[in-house]
């Protein structure tokens, strides 16, 4: 892939994943884990906030987010009834300053808009949390020109209902006009299921650098 291909005039619509494609999701998650650690430490007054914080990060980096809070509850014998409070922190936190877009992503988005391309984001995950993530990113004025689709409102990627929503909104059903940019196997499979072109964001940024 090269930038000539990426900016091919046949592509009219550029669809992006959100997490770890446009920004580093760890900044959002690790900030939430710090706030969770503070919340529990303040509630139980056991001076364990740093231990809580490092456990959440280390376990996330080792095994991902699946069952992360359950492992946390088991290790520290914390009442599982706290899950609602922890999820609220995770899904509604405010971050200051705002999270920056990945290096060069802003320039790419701005360039695409200058070429009159249409942009959209299709993101998996809790709709409340994903909306909050979008709100915590410093878009530098670009968000008003980007259509955001929360896949959970239709069907999680790699299911294609969110893409059907996009084609209906753009009123263009020519699959050759669409390019999807993502960072994961699910993103690539989504593009394959939609029968549209795919570019890995790592390859894109590596080439641009």
| Helix-strand topology string | HEHHHHEHEHEEHEHEH
- Treating each run of at least 4 consecutive H or I residues as one helix, how many helices? 10
CATH topology of the largest domain: Rossmann fold
Name the average pLDDT: 94
Binned strand content: 5-15%
Largest sheet: 5 strands, parallel
Break the fold down into its secondary structure elements and pairings.
Elements: H1 3-6, E1 13-16, H2 25-44, H3 49-63, H4 68-76, H5 83-92, E2 99-100, H6 105-114, E3 118-123, H7 127-135, E4 137-138, E5 146-150, H8 161-170, E6 178-182, H9 185-194, E7 197-200, H10 201-208
Parallel strand pairs: 1-3, 1-6, 2-4, 3-5, 6-7
Structure in a nutshell:
The chain is of the alpha/beta class and 209 residues long. It is 50% helix and 13% strand. The chain has ten helices and seven strands.
Characterise this structure.
It is a single chain. The chain is an alpha/beta fold and 209 residues long. It has 2 domains: 3-23 and 101-208, HAD superfamily/HAD-like (Rossmann fold); 26-92. Helix content is 50%, strand content 13%. It contains 10 helices and 7 strands. It has helices at residues 3-6, 25-44, 49-63, 68-76, 83-92, 105-114, 127-135, 161-170, 185-194, 201-208, and strands at 13-16, 99-100, 118-123, 137-138, 146-150, 178-182, 197-200. The strands form 2 sheets. The chain has a 5-stranded parallel sheet with strand order 5-3-1-6-7, sandwiched between helices. Strands 2-4 form a two-stranded parallel sheet. Helix 9 (185-194) links the parallel strand 6 and strand 7 (197-200). Helix 2 packs across helix 5 (83-92). The longest helix has 20 residues, at 25-44. It is elongated, with a radius of gyration of 19 Å. It starts with a helix and ends with a helix. The mean pLDDT is 94.
